[in-house]
Amino acid sequence: MRLHRLDITAFGPFGGAQSVDFDDLSAAGLFLLHGPTGAGKTSVLDAVCYALYGSVPGARQSGQGMTLRSDHAAPSTRTEVRLELTVAGRRLEITRQPPWERPKKGNRPGTTVDKAQSRLREYDAVAASWKDLSRSHQEIGEEITQVLGMSREQFCQVVLLPQGDFARFLRADAEARGRLLGRLFDTHHFAAVEKRLADRRRATEARVREGDAALLADAHRMQQAAGDAPELPELAPGDPGLAEAVLGWAAIARSTARERLTVAHCARAAAESARAAADRVLDDVREVARLQRRFAEARERAARLEERADAHREDRARMERARKAEAVVPALELRDEAEREHRWASADEEDARARLSGTYADEGAAGLAAAARRASEELGGLESARRAERRLAVLLTEQAELDGEERADEDVLQDAEGWLTEWESTRAELRTRIESAQEAATRAEQLAVQREPAEKRLAAARLRDQLGRDTDDAQARVLRLAERSVEARAHWLDLKEQRLSGIAAELAAGLVEGQPCAVCGGTEHPEPAQKVSGHVDRETEERALAAFQRADEERAEAERRLGVVRQAHAAASAEAGDEPTGRLASLVEELEERYAQARVDASGLHPAQEALLHAERERDRRIAAQQEAAVRAASRDTRRDALERERASLEGELTQARGDAESVAVRAAQLERRAALLGGAAEAARVADDTAQRLKDADARLADAAFRAGFDTPQAAAAAVLDDAAHRDLQHRLDARQSEEAAVRAVLAEAETAAAAQRPPADLATAEQDAVAAARRLQDTVSAWDAAERRRAELDRLSARATASVRRLAPLREEYDRVARMAGLTAGTSADNERKMRLEAYVLAARLEQVAAAATVRLQRMSSGRYTLVHSDDRAGRGRSGLGLHVVDAWTGRERDTATLSGGETFFASLALALGLADVVTDEAGGVRLDTLFIDEGFGSLDEQTLDEVLDVLDALRERDRSVGIVSHVADLRRRVHAQLEVVKERTGSVVRQRGR
Questions:
Q1: Helix (H, G, I), strand (E, B), or coil: what is residue 175?
Q2: β partners of residue 897
Q3: What are the tens digits of pLDDT across the range 728-747?
Q4: Measured between alpha carbons, how far is 824 from 832 in angstroms, rounded to an integer?
């Protein structure tokens, strides 16, 4: 470790900023740190210690660092220590600022406390710049302790050699030496070993006593678990043979439990087989019962059809009579018309004959009536054909509708079959979409968790970049304001000096004749001083002072703002890391894209689920449509047959009615034209006597038409005529009867149903009772098996634990004997420990022996070969042995205690001891080279010759590229040591003055 530079501001007695260039001082190898008492020599060493460890040695560290601030410092100046050093090949810079109680801002009354600040930087030789490592007090402390390999106490004893402490070490007893060496060599872990061995001895002894009790407790638990097993032997903890008896009894209990488990297992297997057989029988009986019910229901439906067979035949006969009666309808209508005409003819007879003219004017009533009758009869015969033609059109429409329905049902069946063929692939595809969307939703949730930290880090990186620019701007402003403050201060001091130079003229301006002078007291003022050109008065000086104070306040405020910006920049850098902002922005953008894509993919979850639900509903709908189409097809075939028969009948009737005409309508038009020509004459010719004849003729024709239609009387024909509503109702009943007969025949034709009907009636109640009984027997056997299995498992577990306890108990006694022997040896109470030395004392004695050997090398040179330090392991009274320290006097050949040395001898002996201890502690700390040492006081007790020898020894350290700083008041050292660091005490605070070689 080599120190390079130390900067101190407002620390200890130093009110302002002071710098120490250790590289310049160390160039000579030996340098002197001197100054008057209280000037602050030790404070320089305290600053080094504070920079490294954040605290100062001894009682000077109090108040959490608040007392480190200089009372001479300006209120706006913050306390700071900056140390630059090289250790383990690394050049480091440590800056520490203790807590600072400063005035509140904005001219507010009172003060506030700023927290302590720390910063660690490392010089990068490749980049030729400083790199920030940490701003954490804890991290910096751990890093410095690791690279130095020493605690603060070790550093203060090894690097800052306090001679007074080592003089006391020489004269101290073994206990005091042990405390000091324990702090330096950190041997508390050896004491911890002693304590741990003692604790282990007590714990092992307790475990041995508890072993038998735990084993017997497990035996009682096994007895409770075994139930009716044999009784345990009467045993107590510590009885001989306890373990063997317990393990033997446990083996018998386990064997009995396994036999019972085997029996229970066989019973359970038999019950499971019986239960399965009963369930199969019950399923078969239920199926037979269902088929028998189906067959019985079909037979009942067939019986009901048979019961209604007479009514059905009557309906069919009625329908047939209605079709025949349709041919008699025109005659019936004609007879009615003739009857009406007979009533009218009696009143119109004279008027009708008066209007007769033309060819038939001379015809008698009979001729006109005959002509009119013939035309009317032929036209009346076509009325039935008209109805038949209308009915035929209706039938054709219904057939077309049936054909359309058939095509629609075929389309439905084909569509449903095609759709259902693709159902499995469609369902698999929809489920794949759902699973993909669910995975995307999970991925989106994971990415959502990553977004916020990434966005925060990006925001911190942008803030870090902005604060970096703000830091540069603030630093530039601090430099400008600092220069302005320095210029204002220089201007104020110049004006102050000019004013002091011309103060006589300013005082002379206030002289009054006869009044005493404020300087000399004279009442006469023969030649008062006159103000020269450019004289500076008090007001000008105060304006300059106010300008300097304003500039200094602006500088302090700018430095404070710079500190705030630096803290914010450090916090943002700690949060954002070293990753470039562009890279973080790309990562955030990529994360956002992945998150957005995942959300887009996840958004398809609900549509996919809805699509699957819709597809399942569509599947059910299409299956139902298939079934409905099949039912409609059966009904449609029946209806088509009926329509076809009726169509054939109507077409035959229409062919006869229209004759040579294209249609009945054309034929009717021809007849209507002829009847129109004869109608007027017939109406005029009819007279009362003809209407009667016509009525008779109409009756005759009606009787003839009824006879031709197959009716015995016209009244029977009239009764057979149906209106449209009655005709539709009768046709519906006939169609329903046909559909029911087809359904019953289909059920009765099922082979499986017919076979079941031939079997005896199914006894479902008996089968269900047998299945319930088998299930109950199975439940009982499972409960018995479960209880046996739990008993067996519990006995196995407890037996295994008892066996493990027995196995642990044997090595436990061996462990107790071994631990007890080691605990007695390390505590110094064992007979094997001849010197009764504890382990920690033994280690410290070895270290003290190394220190004495290393110190002797320098002590012999300082004492011209007279003295040698040796280690003694003799006991002193009732104290501990192994930490004695004697000096061998080569002049007398005798060994004596170090307390008998004189003051000067004690100094160089303690110096040699300190240097030797530094070497040993350095090796103990991992070999970190200490290139800078400080020795504090003690040189005043040496004579000139001894001082030369001591300085020669210290100067020899330079040969190994070490530098030694001597802290002393001795004036002769200022002449002998050319490189000096002087601490000067002033009213405004101490300052340092450095002089190189």
A1: helix
A2: 886
A3: 887 888 888 888 888 887 87
A4: 9
Write out residues in the chain with pLDDT < 50, as ranges. Answer: 63, 163, 238, 356-357, 677, 879, 927
Helix or strand (DSSP H, E) at 318 = helix 309-325
| DSSP code at position 9 | E
The confidence score (pLDDT) of residue 444 equals 77
Over residues 127-146, the pLDDT tens digits come to 888 998 888 888 888 888 88
Tokens of 539: 């007001």
Q: What is the DSSP string of 884-917?
A: EEEEEETTTTEEEEGGGS-HHHHHHHHHHHHHHH
Report CA 50 to chain centroid distance, whole Å.
Answer: 44
Per the document, the length of the chain is: 997
* Dist CA 881 CA 831 (whole Å): 16
The three state secondary structure string of 84-136 is: EEEECCEEEEEEEECCEEEECCCCCCCEEEECCEEEEEEEECCCCEEEEEECC
Q: Are 377 and 690 in contact (CB under 8 A)?
A: no
What pLDDT score was predicted for residue 45? 85
Distance CA 974, CA 35 (A): 11
Q: Which of 990, 985, 954 has its CA nearest to residue 32?
A: 954
For residue 876, the model assigns a pLDDT of 55
- Predicted confidence at residue 18, as pLDDT, reads 92
Which residue is associated with the tokens 């449509």? Answer: 625
Residues forming beta bridges with residue 936, ordered by sequence position: 162, 967
Hey, which residues does 31 pair with through a beta bridge? 965, 979
In terms of DSSP bridges, do strands 160-162 and 80-87 run parallel, antiparallel, or are they unpaired? unpaired
> What separation, in Å, do the N-terminal and C-terminal C-alpha atoms of the chain show?
22
- Find all residues with CB under 8 Å of 543, minimum gap 6, and list them: none
At which residue do the structure tokens 């980049």 appear?
A: 127
Say what the pLDDT of residue 93 is.
94
3-state helix, strand, coil in the chain (%, to 5): 70, 10, 20
CA angle centred on 87, ends 86 and 88, rounded to 5°: 130
What whole-number distance in Å separates Cα of residue 161 and Cα of residue 916?
11
Query: How far, in Å, CA of 720 to CA of 701, rounded?
Result: 18
> What is the model's pTM?
0.40
